[in-house]
């Protein structure tokens, strides 16, 4: 699940992303806006960097393990993943975003920005 070629983006299901974040195999980054995150966020530990800030903040992301991006439905997270991959990071995209995460009954919480 975690092997890759340079700049390749691997899709993960929400269940795969939740498990890998919980075990520390990857870092989950929520790229939605703060108001969206306050309404519903992954219960598992995650960073929050809105998609518009990814290019300026790639230095805050780990280089020792993959980074998985999540948004509402998958579009913004793919944009963030492409930006981070171009910066040389090992990236994943959570397919279906928080909509799929919630629909699959994975743990969520009322988030903080």
TrEMBL record:
InterPro entries: GlpE_sulfurtransferase (IPR050229), Rhodanese-like_dom (IPR001763), Rhodanese-like_dom_sf (IPR036873). Residues 22-110 form the Rhodanese domain. This is Unannotated protein. It comes from freshwater metagenome. The lineage of its organism: unclassified sequences, metagenomes, ecological metagenomes.
